[in-house]
Structure formats: structure tokens, C-alpha cells
Amino acid sequence: MKAVQVVGYGDVDQLQVVDIPKPSPKAGEVLIKVRACAINNTEIWMREGAYGAREKSGWRPEGVQFPRIPGSDITGEVVELGDGVDQGMMGRHVVLFPFTSSGPERKEHLSDDMSFIGSEYDGGYAEYVSWPADLCFDMPIDDFVESAVFSVSGLTAWHMNEQLHIRSGET
Prior knowledge:
The protein is α+β, with helices and mostly antiparallel strands. The chain has one domain (2-164): Medium-chain alcohol dehydrogenases, catalytic domain (Quinone Oxidoreductase, Chain A, domain 1). The protein contains 3 helices and 9 strands, in the order E-E-E-H-E-E-E-E-E-E-H-H. The protein has a 5-stranded antiparallel β-sheet with strand order 8-3-4-5-9. A two-stranded antiparallel sheet has the order 1-2. The model has no long low-confidence stretch (mean pLDDT 88).
């Protein structure tokens, strides 16, 4: 499959288009044919090393491992199922929840093991991506491009609204 990989910290010259094997879903995962993947600051800052010292950039203490396929705002179609995944997932149009974590509900982002697709896992700048089936949700609207904003960008906006406690009439 075709993919874009970040091969090290730096500018856009660290992006390379490559041909690599299509991933295979593990138990509990699905293979998604990527139909849209938004670009946001997460991909840029990860490549630039902006999340900390360059050797520690990323969400995890050990930093990003290169090469890495960026892209965290992903929509696509489920085309293959790993062991133990419900057959009803096949063919579904999904948006991917962008990270894994062992943190408690509504505090997942505070967990030391939080790992993001596109920095700790290979992301959506590829033709296919494998991801846990329980982190794939039906698209909120029937358009791949417009639904791609509901993961990282959408969660960021929702989180800010929750913190600000916006009331009716405020802008």
C-alpha cells in the first residue's frame, strides 16, 4: 500500500511516500480502508518535535519511534476483521477514536499510557490502517471528509466547551 511516513524530526523534507505491506488486523481489531484523514497540528508538531525534547516528542515518555505514519483524524470503511470481532462490523463506515488508554472514563487523557494514532501508532496517511474495533464508531454524518473532523478536532472543541461551561447566549 502507499503511505506517507515521517522518517525523523524536522520540516516537510522528513515526509516520504513509501510502498509498504498492508497491515493485518490483530485480535479485536479491524482493517479500515482510509477514505479521509484530516491534517491538524498533532501531525505537524509530532514531526517538528514540539511535544517535548526531540528525543521525547509524542504522547509517551519514550517518544515517537520512526518511521511513523501520521494522521489521527480518520474515517473509512471496515474491510477486514481480526479474530473475535463481530461480523456486523464488516463494511461499516467509521470514524476512529484517536487514542488508547487505561485511564478511567472521562479521564483517559490523563493516563500515563495514553497513546495516539499517528504518533505512537501508525495513522491515516495511508491506504489502510488497523485499529481496535471498540474504538471505531459509526460516522456522525454520511460524508467521509466532513466526518473526519469528529475525532481529534471535534474532541478538542468538545473538551474546551466542557471546561468553559458555556451557557446559553454566550459566544
